[in-house]
Specification:
Blueprint (H helix, E strand, L loop, with lengths): L2 E2 L5 E3 L2 E2 H8 L3 E5 H14 L5 E6 L6 H9 L3 E4 L2 H9 L7 E3 L6 H9 L4 E4 L2 H14 L3 E8 L21 E2 L4 H11 L3 E7 L10 H21 L5 E3 L17 H19 L5 E4 L3 H4 L3 E13 L3 E6 L8 H5 L5 E3 L9 E6 L8 E8 L7 E5 L19 E6 L2 E6 L4 H4 L7
Parallel strand pairs: 4-20, 5-6, 5-13, 6-7, 7-8, 8-9, 9-10, 9-11, 11-12, 12-13, 15-17
Antiparallel strand pairs: 1-2, 2-3, 4-14, 14-15, 14-19, 16-19, 17-18, 20-21
Helix pairs in contact: 2-9, 5-6, 8-9
The site of lysine has 8 residues, from helix 11.
């Protein structure tokens, strides 16, 4: 449900979106703090009957302010690189509540994690097991770890964001025997303290059965491990991936429905396989920040090819949102300054990069559109700012956090000076 004020303008966090565009310029990422906190509340509420650790997946959107909010809400944090870990460190995040992921962590990233006392390192492969063992030996210390497993499950999402299938770069395969071998290796180590297992089947998932299947496969694996090694997992991390609504066709399950399915299948599987109840960990990213985000653009040139298509170009594009070009994502948008008007024509929204594939939205019905209009694209909170680039040397937009009629800049707009800051003349 969008909010339209008396002027017929879109409102975001109690502020006229046209005023936001005027004050902060466009393109502009806006985060509605109430929606973000409401999503977190829904997760906490949905899982309140069980012992759970909710770790926000920072890859969706991470800044110092976002770390502060996640911390304030009492969530843990999933990071996937030295850069994300550095952000958490600089924000003063409790590093015991950090899970460090990644399929190719470098020696310096692993060292940084060990030296800063990261709570869990989620080890992805045998190479990493060896690297970590050496680092721990040198530091004469121990580390809690989870092992990332590949459960062999199809998650029914875009192939680029599907991760749990057999043919995947991530994790130790359960089916090919790597997973049990990795568990035995970790259990033999004096430096590694194996607390549990992890899997993540993909992203933008609507089919909740995929999660029941995942939980079932993991619990069945834990029974086999117990029989073979005597070890019981204290923690079972099932990853994130719940999908969100981007357009009128999307019908994602509510967070509460997702929670119920996970709780039910978890209880069922623990019972069926007679395993010791591990603490459940989930890692939602998109479903926490995605629908809290909006991007505002100013409309510029318009090219009408009669009988073919009307291209409406905006002042951003694939540099601030590569998802349409990458995954064929389908976004919804309105004209923020004409939010109360009827749609009268079908247009396509193009970005300003020098690429034919730089499109934000193919075929959308909008009111009569002219240069200077403000386009607001919905659900851009996840994997937009975090995947943005300086392609064509475009400065990254600012990010503002809006709530109760107040707007705070949480990331400054890049300047041209920022663009050349690492360049060196020869
Ligand atoms: C290991 C891991 N955990 C959590 C997530 C978060 O996924 P999402 O943003 O879809 O909830 C991802 C990304 O897909 C991931 O790779
Ligand atoms: N970047 C993807 C999600 C990848 C999730 C990370 N494992 C997207 O925008 O949908």
């Amino acid at each position: 449900m969008i909010k339209v004020n008396a002027k017929g303008h879109l409102e975001i966090g109690g502020i006229d979106a046209v005023d936001l565009a005027e004050e902060f310029g466009t393109p502009l990422y806006c985060i509605d703090e109430d929606i973000l906190r409401k999503n977190i509340e829904e997760y906490k509420d949905g899982f309140k009957q069980i012992d759970i650790d909710i770790a926000y997946a920072g890859k969706a959107f991470l800044t110092l302010a976002m770390c502060q909010i996640i911390m304030e809400e009492g969530l843990s944090l999933d990071v996937v690189s030295g850069g994300e870990l550095y952000t958490a460190i600089k924000a003063g995040f409790n590093l015991k509540k950090v899970y460090f992921h990644g399929n190719n962590k470098s020696v310096s990233e692993l060292t940084m994690a060990v030296e800063n006392g990261v709570g869990r390192i989620v080890v992805d492969n045998f190479h990493e097991l060896g690297l970590l063992e050496d680092i721990l030996e040198k530091h004469n210390t121990k580390q809690d770890i989870l092992l990332r497993l590949s459960p062999g499950i199809e998650a029914h999402t875009h192939s680029y964001i599907s991760t749990g299938q057999l043919d995947s770069k991530f994790g130790f395969g359960i089916n090919d025997g790597s997973a049990i071998k990795a568990i035995k290796t970790a259990l033999m180590s004096k430096r590694l303290n194996l607390t549990g297992i992890h899997a993540h089947i993909g992203s933008q998932i609507f089919a909740l059965e995929s999660y029941s299947e995942e939980v079932n496969v993991l619990c069945s694996f834990l029974r086999m491990v117990k029989a073979e090694t005597g070890w019981s997992a204290k923690e079972l991390d099932i990853g994130g991936g719940l999908g969100i609504k981007y357009n009128g066709q999307d019908e994602p399950p509510a967070i509460s429905e997702y929670a119920q399915v996970i709780i039910d299948s978890f209880k069922r599987s623990v019972d069926e396989f007679q395993i010791k109840i591990p603490r459940l960990i989930i890692e939602p990213g998109r479903s926490i920040i995605g629908n809290a985000g909006y991007t505002l653009y100013t409309v510029g040139s318009i090219k009408d090819i009669p009988g073919i298509r009307k291209y409406v170009s905006v002042d951003g594009g694939m540099a601030d949102n590569p998802r349409t070009a990458l995954y064929g994502a389908k976004y919804h948008a309105v004209l923020a300054n004409k939010a109360d008007r009827e749609a009268v024509e079908m247009v396509s929204i193009a970005g300003k990069c020098c690429e034919s594939g730089d499109m934000l939205i193919w075929d959308i019905n909008l009111p009569e559109i002219e240069p200077g209009d403000i386009l607001a694209v919905f659900s851009t909170g996840a994997y937009n700012y975090s995947m943005s680039s300086n392609y064509n040397r475009l400065p990254r937009p600012a990010v503002v956090l809006v709530r109760d009629g107040n707007a705070k800049i949480i990331v400054k707009r890049e300047t041209y000076e920022d663009i050349i800051r690492n360049d060196i003349m020869i």
